[in-house]
Design goal:
By secondary structure, the chain is an alpha+beta fold. It has eleven helices and nine strands.
């Protein structure tokens, strides 16, 4: 599966994360207080991004949620595959809520017994080999295969549908993630337009437009065109164009995307708060998406 140098999705996490983030949060608070006294709000924005790192934000219906860039990238893959399979956005909501509970939407190599990956699927229970499960596209398709066998899942509570697939010892826990999962699925499926932004550092190396085109085909089943350092998609609907554009922003952390244009709007990569939103610009029509890698 193609990936560019940062490879956040391909390189699954080997072990649980430490408590370092708690200490970082305390440090950020102390530094913010100092900067507020000395330098004002612009300085605070830059300091928070510099200390706390990159982030993505999804917003829909007046609600907003923050994601780590690797989490947003995985959520984008999960949602794109639902679009490819012509599943309703609710299917993506169920899948994202499940992954939030099982792995925090991170492609982990650890878990209970032999559980692995985004959905903590177990090789011993017939979900596939360890290598297959650690491929986000494979594991997501397996989840949807099981979900589609759940009679009436589209009208069930998200937690009930998730539990019907996962059969967890704590099935009620999926419910706590419903709000964030719904908003994220709405944005990444294109139902909500211009609903995601990511504040990201410059890529370590130039991204490959050929790799991005191949990944679009794998996730959405579409055939984009490559023109120099850009990838161009002509979508069948405005919602699909926004789904692809949002996907490109969410996956920029591991593809090297630096700018995305669609529907007269544009996202530009930076560590400023402006990168958490789309600006007016980019002379691109309603059903077209242009993804820039340089």
């Amino acid at each position: 599966m193609p990936r560019t140098p940062r490879g956040a999705v391909t390189l699954a996490e080997e072990r649980p994360r430490s408590r370092r983030r708690r200490r970082v949060s305390v440090l950020v608070t102390v530094l913010v207080v100092g900067v507020l006294a000395a330098g004002g709000w612009v300085g605070v924005q830059r300091l928070v991004h510099a200390v706390s790192g990159e982030q993505c934000r999804v917003t829909a219906g007046g609600a907003g949620y923050d994601w780590g860039p690797d989490q947003a990238s995985n959520a984008a893959a999960i949602t794109a595959i639902a679009v490819k399979r012509d599943l309703p956005p609710r299917a993506a909501s169920i899948a994202i809520a499940t992954a939030m509970q099982e792995s925090k939407v991170r492609n982990v190599r650890f878990g209970d017994r032999d559980s692995l990956g985004l959905f903590q699927q177990r090789p011993s229970q017939g979900w596939g080999s360890a290598e297959q499960i650690l491929d986000p596209e494979y594991s997501t398709n397996k989840f949807y295969d099981a979900l589609e066998k759940v009679d009436g899942y589209t009208s069930m509570d998200i937690a009930v549908a998730a539990q019907a697939v996962q059969r967890s010892a704590a099935g009620e826990a999926y419910a706590q993630h419903e709000g964030q999962a719904r908003v994220t699925a709405s944005v990444l499926s294109g139902q909500t337009h211009a609903g995601i932004g990511c504040a990201l550092r410059d890529p370590e190396a130039a991204g490959s437009p050929q790799d991005v085109a191949a990944l679009l085909t794998k996730d959405f089943g579409i055939e984009p065109s490559v023109e120099g350092s850009t990838v161009r998609v002509r979508a069948g609907s405005q919602d699909l164009a926004w789904a692809v554009g949002s996907w490109a922003v969410a996956r920029a952390t591991d593809t090297g995307v630096v700018r995305v244009s669609t529907n007269g709007r544009e996202w530009s990569r930076s560590m400023e708060d402006s990168a958490l939103e789309w600006s007016t610009g980019g002379d691109v029509g309603e059903r077209e998406v242009v993804i820039h890698l340089a």
